[in-house]
Amino acid sequence: MSAPLVDIRNVSHRFGQHPVLKNVSLAIEPGSYTILLGPSGSGKTTLLSILGGFVTPSEGKVFIRGEDCTSVPPAKRPTTTVFQDYALFPHMSVGSNVGFGLRMQGVDGATRAAKAREALALVGLAAAFDKKPHQLSGGQRQRVALARALVIEPAVLLLDEPLGALDLKLRRQMQDELKAIQKRVGTAFVHVTHDQEEAMALADHCVVMNDGRIEDEGAPERVYARPKTRFSATFMGESTILAGKAGDSRDGRVTVTTGLGSISLPGRSPADASVALAIRPEHLVLGDVKGDVALGIAKVSDVVFQGSFKRVLAASTQDPALQFIAKAPASAAVRAGDTIAVSCNAGDIILLAD
């Protein structure tokens, strides 16, 4: 097995006495699109800054292409960073902005111009070479910043919430464009965001962070369908969480005692261990059509139409503290105040250590 492109080993960091990263290790493969996902204060931006050379970790090492880059300054490591505010020079033309990194490397003017035109063509802005940044839209300026980063052919491109300033429609358009560009150039992208939908749309490697640690990582499909921790189950998408205690485990199944009764599901757990059962909204069944696990009766508190589905919140009548979060078909005749049966299939329940 070949060595990873980026190898972050046991990195910790403190600002004063406050720890922001706690013994983080992470491998990033060549050609991958890695998303660092987490809430504010989880350490994802600090980890990106350490990878880019803007912050030296208090402990640990960062290797890129097998070389120790822990203390190497940003300009001398094979990375470039695209910031949320784009940081374009307003007095320079778009072409000069894109070629600026090459200029700092001592590349001659004719070569700079040719490479800048190629990079702008790559991001669909070939006609913008002689324009100034203020003549472009937010999405176009974002693409200029991307072209400026790619033109110097980095081993790793770092993106710090690059779509945060865009409106919803443009953000989704840019997600598609970013993924397409990454596939064309083959550069490893590492992208920080707190937006779960953005992570699932872009990543082939999703890293969920919380309180300075990595909670979960892997393909987004796996992280969503079978999260490893309770935090991951509630941050990477929504889940209804049932607290319980594990009982007998046999033949690949475990019985869990919950406030709604005993539930048998696939999995294993030590007897008497405290566990949590997570159920994704699309796996909760409302009304007469029943799954193989009955979850009792609930009273609907809110129904929100979201285009292709309705998001339904309902409180269990058996355990009022338990709130079900369900997705119902857009055509479903469900409204606030309704009392409905709730069920699911055992195979869709996620068993987590509590």
Automatic annotation (TrEMBL):
Keywords: ATP-binding, Nucleotide-binding, Transport
GO molecular-function term, one example from the UniProt record: ATP binding
Key word Nucleotide-binding present: yes
Keyword Nucleotide-binding: yes
GO biological process: quaternary ammonium group transport
Positions of the ABC transporter domain: 6-236
GO cellular component: ATP-binding cassette (ABC) transporter complex
Coiled coil: none
Recorded family membership: Belongs to the ABC transporter superfamily.
Protein name in the entry: ABC transporter ATP-binding protein
Organism: Mesorhizobium tamadayense
